[in-house]
Design a protein that fits this description.
Shape: globular
Number of strands: 6
Strand order of the largest sheet: 1-3-4
Distance between the termini: 77 Å
Number of domains: 1
Strand content: 5-15%
Radius of gyration: 21 Å
Length: 282
């Protein structure tokens, strides 16, 4: 077994720690990105199975929804990526199907999964918000492994940074020469792992404390949008709206946050009016 030469390692303030991209096992090259995605799927399945067992929900339905979520997220994330990187596949269109090399976007995966789950719940006459709560916990448990895969793939690329948490990237991203063989950047994927763990912890707390269906799902959307908004500040390879320097993730995260806040305010206002009506009626 041999490891491919590492191209990412921590800054010179700490001990060098190579992050390989793949491993060669008996002549076969195995991408760590793919391994992490498989682990993410397995963790999501275990989480959903345990949640439905404890809450006595329909386990079979939610495992089907999780499978649909994984497939739809991969398709949505890939299509959103191709929307901005179509020129990279113009000469090699079959490379579109090579997910081992990375090339997925979060919001594309989110919208793909949302439409698929919404449609399936409507078809099966299942409660969407209840299922969305369960799946949000499952996806939340899996997210750190997805970000770990991004770390192995060196995606997304961070902005220049030479602090104690910096990573140095050599090869295609770095410059050449005796004194400049690498570029020192923010470890965005590592930030993503930490953020995902915190988000999953908060979702577990919401799940235990709140009895209102949908709160876990809405909390997931808000926290993920906030995380994407923050991480975008450290990215150097952002996808921008055509003809502008405005990152797409800023816009999408802002729309999600605004939509949920407006919805929450409308719901609160409606509940307040209903209470007044009931009070006057008494």
């Amino acid at each position: 077994m041999t490891l491919r030469s590492g191209e990412v390692f921590f800054s010179e303030q700490s001990e060098s720690f190579l992050i390989p991209e793949s491993v060669s096992l008996f002549g076969f090259t195995i991408s760590f990105y793919g391994v992490c995605l498989v682990l993410a799927a397995l963790v999501g399945i275990l989480a959903v199975t345990e949640i439905t067992r404890r809450k006595q929900y329909n386990t079979e339905l939610h495992l089907t929804l999780l499978t649909l979520t994984i497939v739809a997220a991969l398709l949505g994330g890939r299509l959103f990526y191709l929307l901005f990187e179509w020129h990279a596949f113009a000469q090699h269109p079959l490379a579109v199907f090579n997910l081992r090399s990375g090339g997925l976007t979060y919001f594309g995966a989110l919208f793909g999964a949302w439409f698929a789950i919404r449609g399936y719940c409507r078809k099966k006459d299942a409660e969407f918000l209840l299922s969305a709560d369960v799946l949000s916990l499952g996806v939340g448990a899996a997210s750190p492994f997805v970000w770990a895969g991004c770390a192995f793939m060196r995606e997304p690329l961070g902005k220049a940074y030479d602090g104690i948490f910096a990573v140095r990237i050599s090869g295609e991203y770095g410059t050449t020469g005796e004194n400049a063989a690498y570029v020192s950047v923010h470890p965005v994927a590592i930030y993503g792992i930490v953020g995902s763990v915190l988000i999953f912890t908060v979702l577990c707390i919401i799940s235990r404390k709140s009895k209102q269906t949908g709160n876990v799902f809405y909390g997931y959307l808000v926290l993920q949008a906030a995380e994407m908004f923050v991480l975008e500040c450290f990215r150097a390879d952002s996808y921008c709206i055509w003809g502008t320097d405005i990152p797409v993730n800023f816009v999408v995260a802002g729309v999600i946050l605004l939509t949920i806040v407006v919805g929450w305010l409308r719901h609160t206002s409606l509940q307040s009016k209903l209470k007044k009506i009931r009070f006057n009626g008494n």
